[in-house]
UniProtKB/TrEMBL annotation, chain B:
PROSITE patterns: 2FE2S_FER_1, 4FE4S_FER_1, 4FE4S_FER_2. Gene3D superfamilies: 3.10.20.30, Alpha-helical ferredoxin. This is succinate dehydrogenase. It comes from the Bacteria. Keywords: 2Fe-2S, 3Fe-4S, 4Fe-4S, Iron, Iron-sulfur, Metal-binding, Oxidoreductase, Tricarboxylic acid cycle. Its EC number is 1.3.5.1. It is an enzyme of class 1 (oxidoreductase). Belongs to the succinate dehydrogenase/fumarate reductase iron-sulfur protein family. Residues 150-179 form the 4Fe-4S ferredoxin-type domain.
Amino acid sequence: MTSSRVGRGRHAHGALVEGGTTDRDALGMGIVRSARLKPPPRIPSWVLKVVMAVTGVVFALFVLVHMIGNLKVFTGAEHFNEYAHWLRTVLQPFLPYEGLLWILRIALMVALVAHVWSAALIWRRGRASRGRHRRPGMWVKNFTARTMVVTGIVLLGFVVFHVLDLTTGTAGVAVDTFQPATPSTAHAYENLVSSLQRPWVALAYMVSMLALFLHLAHGLWTVVSDVGFTGVRLRTVAWWVAGVVALAVMLGNILIPIAVLMGVVA
Amino acid sequence: MKLVMDVWRQAAPGEAGHYETHEVDDATPEMSLLELLDRLNFALVENDREPVAFESDCREGICGACGITVDGIPHGPQQNTPSCHQRLASFHDGQRIRLEPLRSAAYPVIRDLVVDRSALDRIIVAGGHVAVPGGSAPDADALLVSHERAEQALDMAACIGCGACVAACPNGAAHLFVGSKLAHLSLLPTGRQERGKRARAMLNEMEQDFGPCSLYGECAKVCPANIPLTAIAAVNKEGLRSFFRHKDD
Ligand code: HEM
Ligand code: FES
C-alpha cells in the first residue's frame, strides 16, 4: 500500500480512558476504524452537483438571452410588442401558437425542480457532514458561496412574482391595466412599463438582479469544477466568463427599471 | 510572552467536551503552537493534572499527524502551514486563543485535541494506492513521462493527509484530499491502469463520510501541502469519466 497515512505511527500525549478500545488502537497502531457515518446515498453528491451545474447553465443561458431580448424595450413600444408577438408565433405552422414558449417553459420548469431539489439535498448533506460545530470566521471572498441558498430563495420568489406579474397577469400582483397577449397582438411593453412604474416593483426587481448577479458569479465558477475542468488556461477563461456573464445580465436588466423610473421609457 | 488559552477538554469519544482556560507566561514568539502545548502540559503534569492530548509526529510538516483548530481555523492563523510550523509570533502578548480539535462529523474526538481520522484512511484503502504489479524496474526511458506531467503529479502527491481541508470546509467535504489523490495517481502510467475503478471506489467511500463541495475555497487556504483548488475539479472529472467509460482503466 502506498498510502501516506496507513501504518504511520501517531503519538498522542496523554493516555486514553478505558472504554474507547477501538479508538485507542486506531490512534496508536494506525488501525482503521470501519464504522461509516452513513450508507452510500442513492444519488451521490457529486452527481447532484453535475445536475446543479447543467440546470444552472440552462438558466444562465436563458437569463442571458432573455436580458438581450429585454433590451429591445429601448427600441420603442411597437418594436418590443412585435418581438413579444414573434416569440409566440415563431415557427408557425410547425409549432402551434406559443409552441416555442411552452417548450421553453416546460424545460425551465423541469430544470428548476431538479436544481432546487439538488440544492436542498446538498445543503442538508453539507450540514450533516459538518456536524455540530459550525465553521466560523470564513473570509470575505466566499461571501457569494455562503449566500447561495439565500440568493437562490430570492430568485425563486422573484420567478414566481415575475410570472404572475407579466405572464399570467394575476390580479393583486399585476397592474389593473394588464392586457394578456392574443394570437394577433401582444402588449408586453405597456404591461412592463406600468408594472415598473410602481416604485416597490422596480426596487424588488433591482434587488433580485443583484441576487442573480451574486448567484451567477459563484454558480458559473462552480460549474467549471463540477464538470471537471482542470486545465489552468480553461479555468482562467471560465472564471472571467462567469464574472462577465453575471455582470452583463445584472447591468442589462437593471437598466430597464432605472429607465422607467427616470421616465426615459414610458 | 503570555498567552491565555481556552482549550477543548474531552475525556473520551461521545462525551460532552468543554473549554478549560489556561495561561502560559513564558512563551516566546519563535515557539511553535505544539511547543506551546508542550509547555502547558509540562506545567499541568507538574501540578498533577491531566495533560492535554494532541497529536504530532515529525514536527516538520511532512507526516500530517498534527492539526488542531485555532480560533476556528484548522492548523492556525498562518495560511498553508501545519500546526507544528505555526509560530506564536502570529499572536500578540496577552492574546486569548481558542484551541479545539479538527471539527467534522467524520472526525470523532478521541480525547481533547485528538480526532480519529479513520475516514480518510478508508478512502485510501478503497483506492488511494496502486495495486497492479509493477514488475522489476524498467529502463529509465522505457516509459516516457513528460517533465510537466511528472511535476503535476508531484504537486498533487504532496498531500500529507492531515485532513485539515475537511475541517476547514463548512460542508465537511473531503474533495481536496480525494481530488489530489485521484489526480496524482491518474497522471502516471502505473496508476492509470486502475483509473476508472479507483475513481468509483474512492468516490463511493467518500460519500459515506464526507459532504458535497460548494466551492468555498477554505480547504486550499489551510492545506499545508499547498494543494491547489484545481484538485477539487479532479473529483468530478474522474467521477464523470469512470461513469461514462465504465472500464477499469
Ligand atoms: C434564475 C435562476 C437561477 C440560476 C440562473 C441559477 C444558477 C445556478 C448555477 C449556475 C449554479 C452552480 C451550479 C453548480 O453547483 O455547479 C447554482 C447553484 C446553486 N443554486 Fe441556483 N440558479 C437559479 C435558481 C436557484 C434557485 C431558485 C435556488 C434555490 C431556491 C437555487 C439554489 C442554488 C444553490 C443552493 C446552489 C449552490 C449549490 C452548491 O452548494 O454547490 N438556485 N445556481
Ligand atoms: S507533526 Fe508532522 S506534519 Fe505536523
